[in-house]
Write a structure and sequence with these properties.
Length: 281
Amino acid sequence: MRGLPALVLLVLLAPALALAQAPPTQAPPTQDSLAQDRLAPDALVRFDTRPGMVLPVYRMRAPGAPATLLLLSGGAGGMGRMDHIGDGQPTSRNFLVRSRGFFVQAGFDVAVLGLPSDKKSGWSATDRLGAEHMEDIKSVVRQLKADTGLPVWLVGTSMGTVSATAAAIAFGREELAGVVLTSSITGRQKTGAAPTQDLSAIRIPVLVMHHARDGCTFCSPAEAASIVGWLTNAPVRKFLLVDGGAGASGNPCEALHHHGYIGMEQEAVRLITDWIRNPAP
């Protein structure tokens, strides 16, 4: 790793990216879900953030990448357990975590945010708005930039959009190239929902993407569409309403439903990365 003493390398040059295995009760994965080709070595590294705390980040590299995408998963956050029995891959089924290979295939460096050593059970919604979480993300962003010289974008999904929005407000203009919000939390009864944060304070490009058939009570497509109207100081803002995919199953607020772009992962990633390369209204 180039010139970052704060990074402690845990796993180097892991074998090819494992194809995610569907749970026994789930319908067979779609071709999109199985097509994650490895184009670069990956590594689990540990970042020093707050005093006495370390935060694991799963990194993947793409030759000639224009930026690093820091992926913020939903739910309680993190990347799931590492599959040490297999070949050391994150096991979370979250949309961003399971689709990480597609971002690399699109030519971007990827960093998947894990859980800090003092939050192994995950972040609550209140935690995601807190100073410690913001300090962790900011520290990781700075270290990624110092290591690669590349700009960093935050990409959040579901509860990860609470973190991504808060970070864009707190330090986006100083540290971030832009932010992508997918399957945003919109219900005002949920702590940290996008409409409850000061969206007018965001001054970096923002892409808001939502699935037309997202059935999660807290993630209304209609309310997601209104987010861009509150981004009054973002230099570029765009709303993308997508449809498609197949094999939705389980809780409509979970990753294997349309909320998680099931069956259209590669297309969803292509839309995100195309826009990051050329942000336009």
